[in-house]
Amino acid sequence: MYPTLESSREVRHPAPVQVQRLCNDSIVNYFIYCQEQKMFNYAGWPCYIARIVCNTSLLYNEQKKTTYAGAVMPYTYTQFDSSLSLAMIEEALLNPVVKSVLTEITKRLRTEVLAELQDREISGATPNLKSLAMQHSKGDKFVGALLPDHSDEELEKTHEGRALLLSAIDKCLDEANNIHTCHEFLALMKAIDGMAFVYDEFEREKDSPFHSRCKDYIAPTIDEVGIRSRRPGDLLATTYGIGTEIGSDLIPAKVTVNSCLSGKARFFILPPEHRMRTWFEKLADQHTIGKPSLPLIASPSNATAKVFMMSQGMGLFLQDNQFNLDKAQIFANCVMAYLVYSGHHSFLEVAEIWNRQLDFLAIEHPEQLPVGIIPNEPTDARYIEDAEAPERKLPYAVVGNYSDFLHASYRNSVIARMESQLDDGLDLRFESKAGL
């Protein structure tokens, strides 16, 4: 069996938690050296350590080097990200399996998270509804707001508004299997996103050790959050997706027609000229394979981290103590579609968090993985050459490769739909059909 985190501390190498924030090449090279010298006796363990250290894997980087070698890019990564998100939304609206996964999740959220929030409201505890009010008021009209005719102040600070807000979220979660439009998909995912933030508040109130442990693995680091900054001046978004061209995708806030506030309107990534790049930024840099850098909007996605911290804490994908990778991946694809299409995060910023929650699962709870993922016997094979390495069997996203992130059951159809949209010319303006 593989060593646990605790047993790993018996060797003379740094423990994962102790080195988690030391994101630099020397640390990564150290672990590669350890593997080369067979200082670790268990296949997979060096890679898990390396992923915790630099938030990626040896395999992840090796695949990155060859994914697009020699290929000609007909569109920008910004266009690819944006079109992929819409293609996945359309898949979710057509695919009963995707709707079934979302329905299973929302049933749990209604009874275990929203119900507690409603009980607190009825008891007079006055829970914090500021975030939910902002999400579902007129400021977010074009990206899934449930009550676009109401102000966030009304929904947060009036008794009638608060009741209306909680009722609207309840109704939305209850109708997860009955979504037919892009707006309904965005509203549903926004409601799930909101429940994740509520769940996070509840767990932090309880000072939950498990929740804190999840956060250490999954959430963006302080350094990663620090690479983003608020945009100078007040801007609003006028398009879906992650385009950030001033004057077309982003406009001054005083021009309020067909516009709203999204992540791309709030934040930008600070230039690295006068600071050290984070490892995450190095992942996005593809100059060594002759490709442009992958787009970054607001650093690794905290919203994605919260939904997967919630899913781990609630055991949303556990069945008979076995983790259902298929359902988890389908859900991750929907989270990506929602956050990228709404303009909050790029594809990579979501996919990296998906990879980190797989790390959490593989390191902390390997017993929950399907039989055959973790070998029972150690091996002397170099990890990077081991065809049976656990990471090769888990659905990790690969930098610069959209297909591997998508669930195999609809991967080809989503990619084909994305390509068709791009070839036909995709209009992402809020007033266009893209928002219907």
Walk me through this protein's architecture.
This protein has 436 residues and is mostly helical. It has two domains: 325 residues, no CATH class; 105 residues, no CATH class. 52% of the residues lie in helices and 4% in strands. The strands form three sheets. The protein has a two-stranded antiparallel sheet with strand order 1-4. Helix 3 runs antiparallel to helix 4, helix 6 crosses helix 7 and helix 6 crosses helix 17. The radius of gyration is 22 Å and the shape is globular. The relative contact order is 0.16.
Question: What key phrases describe this protein's structure?
Answer:
single chain; 2 domains; two-stranded antiparallel sheet; 4% strand; mainly alpha; 20 helices
Number of discrete domains: 2
Oligomer: single chain
Major β-sheet annotation? 2 strands, antiparallel
Strand order of the largest sheet: 1-4
Helix content: 40-55%
Radius of gyration: 22 Å
> Alpha-carbon distance between the termini?
51 Å
Q: Which structural class best describes the helix and strand composition?
A: mainly alpha
* Backbone shape: globular
Q: What are the secondary-structure elements, in order, as H or E?
A: HHHHHHHHHHHHHEEEHEHHEEHHHH
Number of strands: 6
